[in-house]
Amino acid sequence: MVKLRLRENESINDAVKRFRKLVEHAGIKKEMRRREFYEKPSETKRRTRRRADRRAKLQRVMSS
């Protein structure tokens, strides 16, 4: 949960910018995008497996 308290003499625009940064840093935006559409468990597993394969391939290339 993100909490934001207005500072003394802070404009609304500055507060909104700080709020956006806090939301981004907390990972809420990323989580919302991930949950926007239902993803089948098989698709989730496939995505994580592909990510791991890419990481392993990159490691092999970097160590060579």
- Main beta sheet strand tally, sense and closure: none
Q: pLDDT under 50 segments (min length 5)?
A: none
Q: Tell how many strands the DSSP assignment holds.
A: 0
- Give the helix proportion (percent range): over 70%
Give the DSSP E fraction (strand runs of 2 or more residues). under 5%
Q: How many angstroms does the end-to-end distance come to?
A: 44 Å
Number of domains: 1
Radius of gyration: 19 Å
Q: Which structural class fits the helix and strand makeup?
A: mainly alpha
Helical stretch tally? 3
* Order of secondary-structure elements: HHH
Overall residue-averaged pLDDT value: 93
- Shape descriptor: elongated
In short:
The chain is mainly α and 64 residues long.
What does this protein structure show overall?
By secondary structure, the chain is an all-alpha fold. It has one domain (12-63). The model has no long low-confidence stretch (mean pLDDT 93). Helix content is 72%, strand content 0%. Residues 46-58 have a biased composition (Basic residues). Residues 37-64 are annotated as: Disordered. This is Small ribosomal subunit protein bS21. One of its GO terms (molecular function) is structural constituent of ribosome.
Using brief descriptors, characterize the structure shown.
Small ribosomal subunit protein bS21; 64 residues; elongated; 3 helices; 72% helix; mainly alpha
